[in-house]
Design goal:
three-stranded mixed beta sheet; alpha+beta; globular; about 50% helix; about 290 residues; 9 helices; (2Fe-2S)-binding protein
């Protein structure tokens, strides 16, 4: 019998150092998964019912940062990090593309701690290729070929994220290109990171991420500049990292920290030095 595709994904991520998967649950199990003080918001309802401004302000007041731009990208990080990883990692590690839907992504708000907890993707569907052993299983969607698979994944991602991005744009006044740029950068990094950790071909992973991002842009996302690979020690299997196309503006919320290692505003010489430290001391690496 073909293993459950979601179990295959969990197994593929189990050996990674960084693998922020959402909870993958049947809808009926959602509330039994809930701990006290947590309220689940369906992602489309979070936007349509006006909760984004309320929870954005509460999160910023309780935890910062004080500047609206890093607060906006932080809101994306705490709501969409796991769904983005789900799509990128599944596609890269298993060849199966989760098809997100706004009525299947649930975001848990901890009313005591005033923060979001790990999201849940319920009744997750996967776009699979015709020769996939899982084709025809419940929860799979048949894609004609790889391009069609990427299109299905991208359209689902855009449909799911767009209401949140629009509500966040309206309330925080952060630009759409900044917000979608963060999403597209993260899509790339969440394929590159597993490839680096597993000692695989970074350029191959980056190429797949670029194709997925192209499909997300075709679906409607906007951005000014795309991320780029940054080989800092090409002779080492883990000697390639990347530079974001869009600044996350964390430095505005924490000026003492300065620019992130992957920031497009950081000069490549300083970046080279910082990344080389990762190889000398792996504990510093992401």
């Amino acid at each position: 019998m073909t293993p459950d595709p979601l179990d295959t994904l969990r197994d593929a991520c189990a050996g990674l150092r960084f693998a922020p998967l959402p909870a993958l649950l049947p809808l009926d199990d959602l509330h039994s998964h809930t701990v006290g003080g947590v309220h689940w918001y369906r992602s489309d309802s979070l936007a349509s019912e006006g909760w984004v401004p309320v929870l954005f302000d509460k999160l910023q007041t309780e935890h910062g940062p004080g500047h609206r731009l890093p607060a906006a990208t932080n809101f994306l990080r705490v709501t969409l990090r796991e769904p983005i990883f789900l799509v990128s990692a599944s596609l890269y590690l298993t060849g199966r593309a989760p098809v997100l839907s706004p009525d299947r992504l649930y975001l848990p708000w901890d009313t005591v701690q005033a923060r979001f907890r790990t999201p849940a993707s319920v009744d997750t569907r996967l776009a699979v290729l015709p020769d996939d052993p899982a084709a025809g299983r419940p929860g799979t969607v048949a894609a004609r070929n790889e391009d069609d698979q990427l299109r299905l994944a991208a359209e689902g991602l855009f449909a799911t994220f767009s209401p949140l991005v629009e509500a966040l744009h309206a309330h925080s006044r952060a630009g759409r290109r900044t917000l979608w740029g963060w999403v597209l950068d993260t899509l790339h990094f969440y394929m590159l990171n597993p490839a680096r950790y597993l000692g695989r071909d970074a350029e191959e992973a980056w190429g797949l991420a670029t194709r997925l991002a192209d499909a997300v842009v075709e679906a409607g996302a906007v951005t000014r500049k795309r991320p780029r690979l940054f080989p800092f020690a090409p002779e080492n299997p883990r000697g390639t990292w990347a530079v974001r196309g869009t600044c996350c503006f964390d430095y505005k919320g924490d000026p003492e920290h300065g620019y992130c290692t992957t920031c497009p505003l950081k000069c490549d010489g300083e970046r080279q030095e910082a990344l080389s430290e990762w190889l000398r001391d792996p504990a510093l690496a992401p």
